């Protein structure tokens, strides 16, 4: 098992356009709806109230307009509103992962097919990946409201319509089965799995975090500024249970994907995942570390392809 550490510690990926502080004037110029949420902090710098879900949602909308040309983006109330910089980091490190098998050159354009498991109502990973690298995406989700929301975003933006497809996962017991079509191949899969094992476990963790806030008023709110709805946040067995199930199902399509990947929030879970991958017969496993501020995150990647199969894949798909 290989762990690839981020040499540029506590900073976003070098190609991530969100490495600098937010320029709220430019963002508000691209998205005027952001302006009412901009305020000065105690140092006299412009910011927003990051504990306000509406402010965070509007910031995301402004970032997607300004950096990715997405003219319409919205999510239903209460659904996950993710951090755009962190999501972009995952995409850029995935590009590096593919480049490692392509003589250091990132495969770009329609020849690269990506599968986003649990794309959510926000559809952010496919948006960033398609706009930054021209990749084709299939986004799947078990929640019909999330599927409808993501589909609406895609259809409302001409730059996304030909690059992103959204599919409903009809069976909540499965991850790939039912949405991975016969004979379909993906160069990479990605996933931000449910973190908690149950709604009650999530509530307990959320209360603990809010007790650590300086603002008692914020602590009384007891809400997540980034939202989240049902399967977006919890799964029986938590993220280990979800990723283990993904590993088990990946065996059935092991020759139809170059790299399977998933975020892993807790480093302590890696040992069990490595064991599951060994049992599944993965030929190569990597753990890629990422960082955002003081937070260290990571994703695990595995493949069942042998070196000669990787070479054939590269030559026939990326070098046409």
Structure description:
- It is found in: Cytoplasm.
- Its main location: cytoplasm.
- Specifically methylates the adenine in position 1618 of 23S rRNA.
- InterPro entries: METTL16/RlmF (IPR010286), rRNA_lsu_MeTfrase_F (IPR016909), SAM-dependent_MTases_sf (IPR029063).
- Belongs to the methyltransferase superfamily. METTL16/RlmF family.
- The protein has a single domain, classed as Rossmann fold (3-Layer(aba) Sandwich), CATH 3.40.50.150.
- Helix 1 (about 25-30) crosses helix 2.
- The protein is an alpha/beta fold and about 325 residues long.
- It has an eight-stranded mixed sheet, with helices on both faces. A two-stranded antiparallel ribbon has the order 2-3.
- The two termini are about 30 Å apart.
- The model is unreliable at about 205-225 (pLDDT under 50).
- The chain has helices at about 25-30, 55-70, 85-100, 125-135, 145-155, 160, 200-210, 215-220, 240-250, 270-280, 305-320, and strands at about 1-5, 40, 45, 115, 135-140, 165-170, 185-190, 255-265, 285-290, 295-305.
- It has eleven helices and ten strands.
- The radius of gyration is 19 Å and the shape is globular.
- A hairpin with a 2-residue loop joins strand 9 (about 285-290) and strand 10.
- Helix content is about 40%, strand content about 15%.
